[in-house]
Structure formats: structure tokens, C-alpha cells
Input
Amino acid sequence: MSFCKSVIVTFGVAVAALATLVPPASAQDYPTHAVRIIVPFAAGGPADVYARELAQYLSQSLKQPFVVEDQPGAGSIIGTANAAKAAPDGYTLLAMSNTHTTNESLVPHKPYALMRDFVPVAPINSSDLVMVVHPSVPAKTLKELIALAKSEPGKLNYASSGTGTPYHMAGELFKSMSGTDIQHVPYRGSSGARNDVLGGQVQMMFDAITTMAPNVKAGQVRALATTGTKRSTVLPDVPTVAEAGVPGYEATIWVGIMAPKGTPQAIVDRLNAEINKAIDRPEVRKMWAEQGAVPMAMTPAEFGAYLEKDIAKWANVVKTANIKIEQ
Output
């Protein structure tokens, strides 16, 4: 090999080695302009609330605006489909929840597939749900509610933020495990469902503790049970569904961030690091603990494995409970 060729080869090897050490320019400079976070749910629900909290922190830490866009409809499918079609450049993110992992089996003919068209970025937090009834419902305990529902099949209604959402799945799982016939009333978002339960238009609802607890404490609704494996520190006097009459019952809600497939890994990793820093702040942990939310810190790979496991879990529930989409 000639001296010149040797120098060129050596130089090329050196450049290649440096390339493995230096992050791509896109990741170094990211973001250079506003980033949008699509929330495929209505305003006021957990995904919207925590996406806005996260957006505020990311705007400060990354020195560019992170703007939340609520795009509700079709049980999260409309907004999610729009996010799937966005350029995979880190400037469109998706705020998602276990609605998405449930929909993988509940809604097979969607314009996207979660793990095919998105990449995991990071989870945000999780919380238990609380089963509440309007004060006009005569049942004072979960066992009394089950007895009432069995004595009047199909007469009680429960509201949810839409088909496939954690509120809907919690209700269907409860029906299946308690042997009751309670009618599902889907809404376009949790705010509308919550307002109609508070107003007495619908008798009951499974709702996130983080949003419904103030209404419970104000006496606007009656809490019969919470859905975790142990009592909530926010509502310690309220038993779990499992201890109040339906052994083995458990349902939660969690929220996280994904990005369109093809988003550079370096950008995904940077966002993951920033999100984990955000949820680890003492003031955030304290505030969330008071609300009943628990931070979920994972790497993108760990979050991906979590999503796969959750998809399989809800596919089994959908099949076992024979849950169908309302036409």
C-alpha cells in the first residue's frame, strides 16, 4: 500500500472512531424550535395535566417551547394517528397511556400499530383509580353496589373517557369479575364524563385518584373503592376493590411519551434523560405523592419492554372478559 493510501485509510479510521464518540449534530443542537406534544385525550385528564407539567419543565431545560396540543376523539385514535404521520425528527411527541396498550387488542383495525409506528421515549407516572357513585345512588359500600346492580341488571350506568381508556377497562374488568351488568356510557374525554357523574346524569365512574379525590373530599361523590393492590395514601379510609368484595381486582392508569418511528435515537435518549430528571425533582415527587401519582423512571428500552408486557396483559383481559367495542 502506498504512503498516501495508508494515510487516507488511517485518516478514515480516525474519523469513523470520532464519529462514534461525538453525538450527531441533530442531537447536539436539539431542539432548535418549538416541539409539540400531541395529547389524544380531552383537556383536564391525567395525560393532559401531566403533559403540560412536563412541557413546562422541558421548555425551561431545553430552551425551546414544548407546546401541548389536545386532539381527542375515538378513544385516542385520532390524535395518535396524526402523531404517527408526523416527521420523525423529534419535533412531534405523543403523550400516551394504557389506553394505547389496550387498543392494540381492542381495536385491531387502527391506522397505526403502537410498537410498529412509534418508539418509546419515557413513562411519566402511574396512579390508582377510584370508583365513585353520585350521592343519589343508595349503595354505601361496594358490596351494596354489587347487590343493587344484580337486582336491577342493566339499569346502572358508568361513565368513561372513551372506549379502551383505563376508565372503561376498569369498569369492564369490574363487571366481569363481579358478575354484574352495568351499562357503559363513553365520552370524548374524562372531563365530560366526570361532570355528568358530578351532576347525577350518570350514576358512577372509575376515575383517576389524582383528579377525582378533591370531589370525593368535597362530598360531591361517594367513593366506594380504589383500584390498587393497597389503599391509597390520598384516600386512606376507602378500601380497595379487592378487599371490599372483588378479590384479585386491580386496575391503574399510567402516562408516558412516545415518538414517531425513525426519530433519531440520540434525540430519544436526550428526551428520556430530561424527563427522568423532571420527575425526580423533590418538589414534583412531593406534589405527586399528595395527588396519588407515582413517578415511573425507565430507559427507552425498559419502557419498550413495559409496553410489550402491558399489551399482552390487556389482550388477555379483553379476550377473557369478552370485551367488545360499542358500535
Q: What stands out?
A: Residues 128-244 form a domain with the D-Maltodextrin-Binding Protein; domain 2 fold (CATH 3.40.190.10). The chain is about 45% helix and 20% strand. The chain has two domains: 12-16+22-127+254-320, 128-244. The beta strands are 35-39, 66-70, 92-97, 118-133, 157-160, 183-186, 204-208, 222-226, 252-260, 293-295.
